[in-house]
Amino acid sequence: MLNPTGSQAVAQAQTLDDARRTAEQTSTPSWIEALQALLPAECIRSDFQSRAEHSRDRLPFGRFRHRSKKLAGDLPCAVVEPKTSDDMQRVVRFANQHDIQIIPYGSGSGVLGGVVPFQNDMIISARHLDQIIEIDETNRVARVEAGLNGMAFETALRDRGFTCGHYPQSLSMSTVGGWAACRGSGQASSRYGNIENLIVGMKVVLPDGELLEVRPVPRRSVGPSILEMFIGSEGLLGIIVELTLRIWRLPEHEIDTVISFPDLDHGLAAVRDIMQAELRPALARLYDEAESIKWGLEAPPGGAIPVICMLSFSGLEGVAKAEAAAAMEICARHGGTVSDQEPMRHWKSKRFESHSDAFVDAGGFYDTIEIAAPWSTVGEMYRQMTTSVRDHQPVVQLSAHWSHAYTDGACMYLTCKIPAMSDDEALPIHADVWERVMRLCLDMGGTISHHHGIGCFRNRWIAEELNHGHRMLEGLKQVLDPRMLFNAGKLGIKAD
Ligand SMILES: Cc1cc2nc3c(=O)[nH]c(=O)nc-3n(C[C@H](O)[C@H](O)[C@H](O)COP(=O)(O)OP(=O)(O)OC[C@H]3O[C@@H](n4cnc5c(N)ncnc54)[C@H](O)[C@@H]3O)c2cc1C
Questions:
Q1: Quick one: pLDDT band at residue 11, thresholds 50, 70, 90?
Q2: Which side of the chain, N or C, has fewer Cβ within a 10 Å radius?
């Protein structure tokens, strides 16, 4: 099973059958009856099926364990789904009185084990807090409940001629509260910004049951940002119940194009120059050779396989056209030529689907690792990372694309595939790939996560990444949640 240090004691994993037997032999916690007096009966579930379904998220390690009929961590003791923010407060106060550990839960689409219980915790799901409270066209903001599904939010906005501008690939699988809690990024981040640029207000049920309100304003200079303390808090500092986010007019015009470059270095230089020319592509996705091949590109005689880059510009027609023209000039200077548009059409049709399911269902091991680094190192970092796993080849396939770009650097999104084999063989290799990638990332000045967060799976590296900042995070946790009731064992903060 996983443990809060993030290391994987594979052999100790509890089987689902054992967990079921133990659950059947263990009596329902005595406090359930008292909680039933506070909430409607349908909001509390303690049956084995509900508990097992909420025992993990989309953490690949957890999926591999589940495939082998094992638990990733522990079973939660119950799944509680309050219908209102007041009820959330009641449940949190109740948990305090009865000393019950809590894990806030959005949709379980996280990929780092952020909701995996280690100590029989109670899952508090935001599922029923799913309303759009207000779309304020004057101030261009929307006020929503935190359990709102991302796709439902975007669809409602589009019906009114707006967009939220935040399009994670998991749009239909995730909640707006989960976006904030994991400090996520959408596919159009270089145009609209990341989630921290979009959220302007928030309500949070704190670990003592009090409701914190950060009023929505365009910006404030009132000490360190309280709002930002909760963006990326991963369920450790309270339950986010409401958010106010900037929204945007749907673009008047969109220009999509696919460019092929002779090699990766030319592609990276072009994307860097596009960002440093202060253009704002709605999409800038550059693929390495291994990922470009899947789009059907062939090497010219005697040459290397070209790498492809998908670019999109949007907004007012004149602005989008001018930005696209400027970007084309930059690409041409780096040897880029307009390529077949099919990869863009294909990508757009699948942009909100999971790409790992077929591979995992066929017994393979599929994981992704997203990091970010300055332009000066990102190319070399890629080379060293792919070289560092060579002794695992041909078993391990490590490929990458760059899908969030900035003036100073980019996010590198690595995909690791290991073919079908036993867990005993594959999981140590999987762990070793993570170790080598994280080590190189830290040694070369990158950050260990660009948008998936830490959960428990990255616990091993967070203290090194944050240095004294981790001590500060522990202090914040101690002040807000001295009894360590909220999602202990995540963000590298020990459960005891
Ligand atoms: C196929 C796939 C593609 C993905 N693509 C992207 C992507 O493009 N960009 C991206 O950023 N992420 C992506 N993710 C990761 C994941 O979808 C995001 O991290 C998402 O924001 C998690 O939202 P959720 O509602 O499912 O949260 P959950 O998985 O339920 O929870 C994640 C963490 O947030 C905490 N949490 C959840 N809700 C609350 C709340 N209301 N209050 C306090 N804490 C809370 C939980 O305790 C946990 O620690 C992808 C995942 C998958 C499976």
A1: very low
A2: C
